[in-house]
Amino acid sequence: MGPGLYIHVPFCARKCAYCAFFSRRAAPEVVAAWFAGIGRELETLPEGFAPESIFFGGGTPTALEETDLGRLLELVRERVDLGRVAEWTCEANPGTLTKRKAARLRAAGVNRLSLGAQSFDDETLRRLGRIHAAAETREAFAIARAAGFENIGLDVIYGVPGVSRESFRADVAAAMALQPEHISCYCLEIEDGTPFARAAAAGRLEISADDQRAQFDWARQRLAGGGWAHYEISNFAKAGRECRQNLLYWSGGEYVGIGPAAHSHWRGARWGNTAELPVWRREFEERLEPAAKACETLVMGLRRLAGWGREEFRAATGFDYDALRGTEIARLAAEGMLIAEGDRVWLAEDALFVSDSVFAELV
C-alpha cells in the first residue's frame, strides 16, 4: 500500500466535552498563520512523494469558511502530486457542512466524507457537547449524497454515561438506515484535560464498563448482520469501502503529517509536531530499532480483525512474529486472547473489547 498524506485542520466551532484532539476556534488571524505554516510544510515533502491516500482531519475541516476550504484544496492541488490518489477523505461535522462546501470538496477531487454523527438522540448530543442536532446529521448526509459522494462514513459513540443501551441501539439503527459505506463505533474514553475528565474527577460522571461491553457486542452483531464487515476494532465497512488511510496506519505503512499535532512515519523515521498555534514546530524525531518497530507494527496490525499472516508480516517488517514474540503469543493464545492457527495470528473475540491489555503484552 502506497504512502498517505494527513493534514490537520485544527479548528472547531466549539470544543466537545469528551475531545482531547488539538483544536481552536477559527479566528481569522490564526487561520492565516495556519495557512502559512501548512504552505511551508508542504514545500518540504519528500522528493518524489506521491500519496495514494489523503486525509483532512481535525478539528473540523468543514469549520473553515468556504473560501478558506477552497484555498486549502487549491494549495494541496498545487503542491502535491495527486496522480496516484485513490482515496481522499475529509472529516466533516453536521452543522458545518453546506451544499457549497460539499460541492467544492467533490469538485477538487475529495471522494470520501467522514461525518461525525456521534448520536441520533438530541439529548445525548447535548450531553456530549456537540453543536448539531440529529436532524442536521440527516441533512448533512443528504447534502453529501447530492454532491456526488458515493463513499461516506458515519461516526457513532457508545458507552456514554447516562445513555441507555436501548438509546445506543437506536443510534446504530439510525446510522444503518442512512446506508453509509462505513460506520465507526468508538468507545467513549475519559481523556485528560477534557470537561468529562474534570466531571469524572469530581464524581459527577461514571463509566460503566459492563454497559460499554454490552453495547460493543451488540453493535458488532447488528452491523455484521446488516452488511457492514467488522474489519478493525472500531470500524465496519461495506465490501471494498474500508478506509485506506487507516489501513495504512494499522499496516505499518508510510505517511507524512502536516500541521500542528500531526505525526509522520517515513523511511524508518518518525516525527511529530507540537500542538500549538499560530506557530508549531517539530517536537520530536526518532528512529526505532528494526525489532522495536516490528513489534509496534505487530500490535498495530492486530487491530485489524484479520490480524497478520506470517508472510505478510515478514514482508512488512523483515521479521517472523514468532521470532519476535513467540512466547507471548503462545501464552496469550493459551489464555484465549489470541488465536494462532497455521500461519496467521489474530485477536480472539473476547480480546476485542480489552485489546489494549493484550497489546501491552506484545510491545
Count of beta strands: 15
Strand content: 15-25%
Number of domains: 2
Lateral arrangement of strands in the main beta sheet: 7-8-6-5-4-3-2-1-9
Total helices: the number is 13
The biggest beta sheet reads: 9 strands, mixed
In the CATH scheme, the class of the largest domain would be Alpha Beta
CATH architecture of the largest domain: Alpha-Beta Barrel
The rough form would be described as globular
Mean pLDDT: 92
Report the CATH superfamily of the largest domain: Aldolase class I
CATH topology of the largest domain: TIM Barrel
Write the H/E string, N to C. EHEHEHEHHEHEHHEEHEEEEHEHHEEH
Share of residues in helices: 25-40%
Cα gyration radius (Å):
20 Å
Please describe what this structure looks like.
Helix content is 40%, strand content 20%. The protein is globular. Helix 3 (99-108) links the parallel strand 3 (87-92) and strand 4. It folds into two domains: 4-249, TIM Barrel (Alpha-Beta Barrel), CATH 3.20.20.70; 289-363, Arc Repressor Mutant, subunit A (Orthogonal Bundle). The protein is α/β, with parallel strands linked by helices and 363 residues long.
